[in-house]
Amino acid sequence: MYKYLLIVFIWLSYFSAECSPKLAWEEIRTMQEVEKGQGRIKHTLIFRNEGDSTLKISRIRKSCGSCASLNFTQKEIPPGSEEKLKVEVILARGATSKKISIYVESNDPENPVLQIPVNSELLGLNYPYLINFGNVAENTSEIKTVEIFSTGKKTFQIKDISWGLFVESIKTKTIDEGKKYKLEILLKPHRFAKSIRDSIKVRTNYPGLEEINISLLANITAPITIYPEEILIPNSTNIHVTRYISLEAASNIPLEIETIKIPISSMEFEILPLSNNSYRIRLSNIKVSDVLKNEAIRIHISMPDKKEIVIPFKLIE
Fold first, then answer.
1. pLDDT tens, 110-147?
2. What's the pTM value of the predicted model, to 2 decimals?
3. Which of 128, 142, 154, 197 is the most buried (most CB within 10 A)?
């Protein structure tokens, strides 16, 4: 009896292994479209069932959100049959390439989640459609460097560049004659503007892209942001508290803390660097007393226009 059951089990295992679906794929066609400087790459993939039973596709998903669309309706593929999946990849304005992945979930026992790389390449000019300078301290300049280059065999030249009121100058450097150029954009110092929105126009001899518009953004901030402006302490005796101070300079200004002077020797501090231009200071073992009423924390920093930061203590009821 035992031998009979073992034979049946082996036979069933062999049969189930033989009669299973197998998903295979290949890309058969790629088309590209360009409209107003924005590219779309259309891929056509073939899904083929090379197994011995019906292939059931339960889900198809992509690695990005709105950058691509999928068109596939047939969920079951009989043995020996095939179906088409259409993938349309949308490139950002000025971009000429994008890599995504398609994930196919099915009842293929050997590969239940098949990952398919989809590489999209567009022939044209690659350029940034938006340059974000980030936070720029008032009365300071900031430089951004970007590249414009050609994909494919076509060559081009930059004929002219114009810009608005917020740009001081733009220098052009040839990296590869007819193929790649570098632009060095110098932003003007500003004091009263809170934000900058500007654009530059690059004129080329590339067919269909004779004029490229690149937007510029920047936030004009104070050289350094300090929080809090006062260190609030409860007006209670015989307790110890901990407080924090945050310092952050604009992105184009380096910041270093040189020394910290505390009013009471029992008080402790710890400097916690967050980045090249931001810190968090931990003040601990602050003993509440009337002595703190007229005292302050004094922080000496490396900025030329602001050598000392004074943050007073304030006792609250």
1. 999 999 999 988 888 999 999 999 888 878 888 999 99
2. 0.62
3. 142
The domain in which residue 11 lies consists of 2-122
Query: What's the alpha-carbon Rg for the chain, to the nearest Å?
Result: 32
* Token pair for 15: 């049969």
Cα–Cα distance, 227 to 127 (Å, whole number): 39
* 102 lies in the same domain as 158: no
CB atoms within 10 A of CB 87: 23
Report the amino acid identity of residue 154: K
CATH number, residue 70: 2.60.40.10
Q: What is the pLDDT of residues 164-194, one digit of tens each?
A: 888 999 999 999 999 999 999 999 877 666 7
